[in-house]
């Protein structure tokens, strides 16, 4: 994959070509399919290549080299890395908390169609036995490569900040219980959200950090000082910053200030126009920087669906005008967001540079999930997980591991675009 040497980023920087793969130029395994995407604005880790090229060999991105290949002209479009969602509960009318592989795959397919090619399945508060049952199902999908891991959001959270979690199933983060849940995931646990101020909270943060599992601070009433202590113990993520935690006050800065100021912490943001005001999102980016923000959906089963009634764990949710709220109490209950909409809002409403928005949608969460060597950016050797966007930042094609999940649809074509080989469409 290359771009012209004179390609300029939106910040007037010159985009550098990624390092070449170890394979000698012009060679590839016999029989490997090779396709070149041309003419698009390609978002690279260090900028935007105007009129760039992305070469795909089999399931991987390859260094550009002469040789026979099919080409697809994407002039007027963007090519960005496949999105990575580290906090998503479901979609397409399905929930990861159902403990059903069929439902999980339906949710995965829904988000893939919107450009999310990598995701960690998030569960909601439940009994430990029920969560272990769900983890057994989801861990098989992790082994198969359909999921990048499991995120346990609850039950170790603060009662006063539980949001759309069943308060009757909450419990303190006893390290033995936390460890049992992690072990039930059979190596697939990637993150546990907890309130560090609860009894056992700090010990559990240390246990998770020592186990290679992300300790995330969320659904918490912790003070500024308590959160700093948790970060010192190994917490590295803020679960949907600003939401389900005390607000930033001038005499009580609380979790928000502590999580924003510490360079070791990546902050999740739900950019759906409901959870956060654009000015608050701008504040978070200004303080944390693009390298410490991860856009997430926190989407429940209604994502990709219409208004109506949906389950969220044991609770009922009503979606009206795309906003999900608990039937009882009216608390916001996750979102119906997909990451393509988060990207579109980031650029058109929030005024972010597209490369910064893409980093928050792809490379940053990939790094946290431990898969940045495979996905999260357009570089030779990584999986060919790519999203084609039209000029309005809407999905026009999705590729995962070299295969089109959503075939590219270009302007004035009634059918999905083909790949040109020697003047014919293949």
Q: What is the CATH C level class of the largest domain, in words?
A: Alpha Beta
Oligomer: single chain
Percent of residues in β-strands: 25-35%
SS summary, helix count = 10
Number of domains: 2
| Annotated CATH topology of the largest domain | TIM Barrel
CATH homologous superfamily identity of the largest domain:
Metal-dependent hydrolases
Label the overall shape. globular
- Architecture of the largest domain in CATH? Alpha-Beta Barrel
Describe this structure in words.
By secondary structure, the protein is an alpha/beta fold. It folds into two domains: 35-81 and 376-409, Urease, subunit C, domain 1; 83-373, Metal-dependent hydrolases (TIM Barrel, Alpha-Beta Barrel), CATH 3.20.20. 24% of the residues lie in helices and 26% in strands. The protein contains ten helices and 23 strands. It has helices at 101-112, 128-144, 175-184, 201-210, 224-233, 254-261, 278-288, 339-348, 354-361, 363-369; strands spanning 34-44, 47-57, 60-62, 70-73, 78-81, 83-88, 90-91, 94-95, 116-123, 150-153, 189-194, 214-217, 237-238, 266-270, 293-296, 308-312, 315-320, 323-326, 386-389, 395-400, 403-406, 420-421, 424-425. Strands 1, 2, 3, 4, 5, 19, 20 and 21 form an eight-stranded mixed β-sheet that branches. An eight-stranded parallel β-sheet has the order 6-9-10-11-12-13-14-15, with helices on both faces. Strand 13, helix 6 (254-261) and strand 14 form a beta-alpha-beta unit. Helix 2 packs parallel to helix 3, helix 5 (224-233) packs parallel to helix 6 (254-261) and helix 8 runs antiparallel to helix 9 (354-361). It starts with 33 loop residues before the first strand and ends with a strand. The model is unreliable at 1-28 and 418-426 (pLDDT under 50). Its EC number is 3.5.1.25. GO terms for molecular function: metal ion binding; N-acetylglucosamine-6-phosphate deacetylase activity.
């Amino acid at each position: 994959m290359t771009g012209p040497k004179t390609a300029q980023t939106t910040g007037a920087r010159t985009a550098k070509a990624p390092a070449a793969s170890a394979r000698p130029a012009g060679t590839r395994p016999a029989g490997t399919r090779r396709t070149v995407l041309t003419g698009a604005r390609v978002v690279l880790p260090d900028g935007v290549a105007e009129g760039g090229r992305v070469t795909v060999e089999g399931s991987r991105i390859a260094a550009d080299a002469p040789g026979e290949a099919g080409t697809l002209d994407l002039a007027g479009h963007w090519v960005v890395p496949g999105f990575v969602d580290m906090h998503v509960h479901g979609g397409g009318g399905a929930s990861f908390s159902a403990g059903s592989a069929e439902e999980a795959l339906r949710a995965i397919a829904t988000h893939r169609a919107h450009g999310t090619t990598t995701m960690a399945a998030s569960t909601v508060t439940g009994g430990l036995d029920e969560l272990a049952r769900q983890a057994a199902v989801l861990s098989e999908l992790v082994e198969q490569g359909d999921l990048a891991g499991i995120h346990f959001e609850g039950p170790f959270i603060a009662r006063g900040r539980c949001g759309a979690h069943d308060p009757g199933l909450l419990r303190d983060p006893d390290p033995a219980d936390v460890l049992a849940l992690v072990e039930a995931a059979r190596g697939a646990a990637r993150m546990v959200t907890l309130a560090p101020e609860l009894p056992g909270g700090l010990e559990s943060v240390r246990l998770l950090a020592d186990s290679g599992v992300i300790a995330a601070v969320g659904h918490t009433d912790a003070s500024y000082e308590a959160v700093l202590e948790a970060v010192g113990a190994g917490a590295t993520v803020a679960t949907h910053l600003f939401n389900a935690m005390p607000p930033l006050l001038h005499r009580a800065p609380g979790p928000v200030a502590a999580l924003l100021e510490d360079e070791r912490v990546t902050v999740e943001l739900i950019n759906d126009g409901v959870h956060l005001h654009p000015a608050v999102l701008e504040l978070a980016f200004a303080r944390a920087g693009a390298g410490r923000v991860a856009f997430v959906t926190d989407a429940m089963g209604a994502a990709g669906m219409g208004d109506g009634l949906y389950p969220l764990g044991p609770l009922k949710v009503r979606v009206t005008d795309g906003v999900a709220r608990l039937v009882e109490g009216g608390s916001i209950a996750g979102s119906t967001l997909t990451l393509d909409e988060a990207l579109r809002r980031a650029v058109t409403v929030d005024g972010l540079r597209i490369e910064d928005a893409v980093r928050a949608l792809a490379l940053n969460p990939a790094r946290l999930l431990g898969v940045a060597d495979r996905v999260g950016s357009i570089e030779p050797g990584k999986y060919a997980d790519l999203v084609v966007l039209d000029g309005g930042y809407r999905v026009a094609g999705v590729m995962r591991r070299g295969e089109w999940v959503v075939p590219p649809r270009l302007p004035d074509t009634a059918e999905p675009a083909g790949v040109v080989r020697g003047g014919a469409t293949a």
